[in-house]
What we know:
By secondary structure, this protein is α/β, with parallel strands linked by helices. It has helices at 9-22, 31-35, 43-53, 60-74, 80-83, 90-117, 125-133, 152-159, 178-182, 249-257, 260-269, 284-287, 290-297, 311-319, and strands at 26-29, 141-145, 164-165, 168-169, 174-176, 186-189, 200-203, 206-210, 214-221, 224-227, 240-243, 273-277, 301-305, 323-326.
Amino acid sequence: MEVGLELTREIAYKAISDFFSVETPFVLFATGTSCALDLNFGMPALEKHLRDRLSTGLNEEQAKQWQQVVGALAEKTHDFESAMNFIKDDELTNKIVALTASFVAQHDHNYSHQIISGSTVWPAGKLFKKLVDTLPETDRQLHVATPNYDLLAEYSFIFERQPYLTGFHGGYCKSYNWDECSKSVKYLERSPSRKRVKPVLRERKHIRLYKPHGSLNTFVIGDRVVECDAWIKDPPVGVLRSMITPGTSKYQRLHDDRTQLGDYDRAVQNHSRFLFLGFGFNDSQLVNNTFKQKLEHDHCHALVITRDTNKRLTEWLSRCPNMWLICKIG
């Protein structure tokens, strides 16, 4: 917007309309979309759950590390995610990942059938349907990412009958391969009036969903990551969850090695417009590298829709001239 120009409702509406009409954005939705349904999906609820469960049963070193987390939070020198970096013990890390997964999985389970049946609506469901339905014929993919572990969005896509891909293909236990996965949205289109014309391979409009922090249904078997819905609440003994929880250094190494991140990074690089939903920019793993270059240095356009603003988001707005924010006032 031109410096000195008063922001009116008409100017804002036009800017938002132009944002969506010029190019299909890359979409990143975060915990705000789940918390709009149930606050138990947010970091404060997870923090309380971990405090309750980790108050006893730790050895001396584990208790020391956990008290560093609690102390940093009490002194307000760290937020929950950064305070968790004090955790170094592998056994404590495993326990935190397991507690996080079981907590989120229980609430995810409570909403799975409700959303799939339509008795409960995931807040961003209609917006995604609109974005997919209006995809141009020349590009039938909506690229979407989320740090959320839950599957609320996937349940909503099922209810809306929107094809979506996560990069995994197969049966009971799916393997990661975008090429094979993408075949499920391909079809042969025949010309109704010209029977001798060779059929054309087309692609249905669909969502390509990237989950760079892993998900409740992703696990590590040997040296590969798999997807298995049957293990969401109770994975087999010895099967490691592929989930990156705050501050868990062992799982950060797993995160760094995952081939999925390359596909996510390439998708971000290929876009120049970005839509953020329920995202407060507190997740440094997701935004400090690729998005920093895109928004701050390349001046790409971005629209942030979230309930509340915060200091970190305000800092991003001050550095990124083409970023707009829609949030609650007061």
